[in-house]
Amino acid sequence: MKSRVFILALLALAVGCSNGANAPEPAAQPPSSAAHTGGTLPADDASPTGNDAEQAAPSSDPNSIGGMVGKVVPSGDTPSAQPAQASDAIVGETVKEQSFPVEFELAGKSEFITTAEDVDGRPQLHFYVKKADAVIELDYEAESPGAYYSVAAVAFRDVSGDNRKDMIILMEYVTGAGQMGAVPVSQLLIYKQTESGFVQDQALEEEARAGVPYRILTIQDVMTGLATAPADSITHAWKKLKPGRYELEGSTELQASTLTVEAVEGDRLRFRLDAIYAADEEAAERGGVNIGNIESGEATLSEADMIFRDGDFELTISLIASNKLYVSDNGVGYFGHNVWVKGMYEQSQ
Q: What is the three-state SS of 131-194?
């Protein structure tokens, strides 16, 4: 009887040890959904292959963002990863027409988000890259703090020649100062996609601006600027100016001005200018129209502008954009009473 009890005790001990060995461990906690400030977005589930496998090791935390974002790094320097920080909060209302899904070579499928935050009655723009719950903000400094800013364009192009999509952002603002105070000015932002994150490259921004002399830029202008030597930028831009009619913004049937570009030949611009002014419709009907015109005008390149001279009178024609000109004069009387030619001219469709 005692031997039977002993055998049963051994069996019970063996079963207990077996259950202890197979007892479930505490459930693994899911990774935190909090993002980190920085420029490295989480990698996709699919591992990169080829050269990308060496350049982009998948993150151990699928929601982490490490590295840097929006930091200005001199051209040619390689940014180093920095400790992860707290998530960037998305501030302001989303600007839907300037927010897009995008797939980056290193970070994979993401969202580019533009928002506008109301600060003292003016929109302060913010730019974010979001993947899953990870959010980073692209920092920048406004060229004209306090000015009214808007987003003109966003594009994803390889501007650094590494076969990765970089970010090009064009904002516009007006200064309100000087004779062109109401004419928008473009501020260009370029963020390179690197192993350490999205890094603002001011050297590329300056290179693009030096390659095109326009006040208002398009995405194509940025790409052209990056491919054009600064010494050739002004002559190259004038050669690209299309012949045709350019109309003064705000022209009406009673007050209007049209500049016709006939040709650009070397450092000279051949043009014609026709402007009118009438006090009212009755005056216009009875022929009370003041006229100002320049027939067979020829302007000569001076720095970045074309200058037409006739005696003491000077007319300046400036490139504002690839399809826009700004005309001004030195105030010497030349046209009929109240005939107005100053302002922005846009090419007629």
A: ECCEEEECCCCCCCCCCEEEEEEEEEECCCCCCCCEEEEEEEEECCCCCCCCCCEEEEEEEEEE
Residue-wise pLDDT tens digits, 35-91: 333 445 555 443 333 333 333 333 334 443 433 344 444 444 544 333 334 467 899
- Contact by Cβ (8 Å): 212, 223: no
CATH assignment of 241-347, among 2.40.50, 3.30.160, 2.60.40, 2.40.128: 2.40.128
Whole-number pLDDT of residue 8: 30
Can you read off the two tokens belonging to residue 61? 């935390």
Spatial distance between the Cα atoms of 48 and 140, rounded to a whole number of angstroms: 30
- Are 152 and 165 in contact by the 8 Å Cβ rule? The answer is no
pLDDT in tens, 24-48: 343 333 333 333 334 455 554 433 3
pTM: 0.75
Give helix 219-226 / helix 202-211 axis angle, nearest 10°.
90
Cα–Cα distance, 273 to 259 (Å, whole number)? 5
Contact indicator for 243, 261 with CB cutoff of 8 Å: yes
Domain ranges of the chain: 51-238, 241-347
Cβ(169)–Cβ(188) under 8 Å?
yes
Contacts 24+ apart (CB under 8 A), 97-103: 98/151, 98/153, 98/154, 100/154, 102/156, 102/165
CA distance linking residue 101 with residue 165, whole number of Å: 13
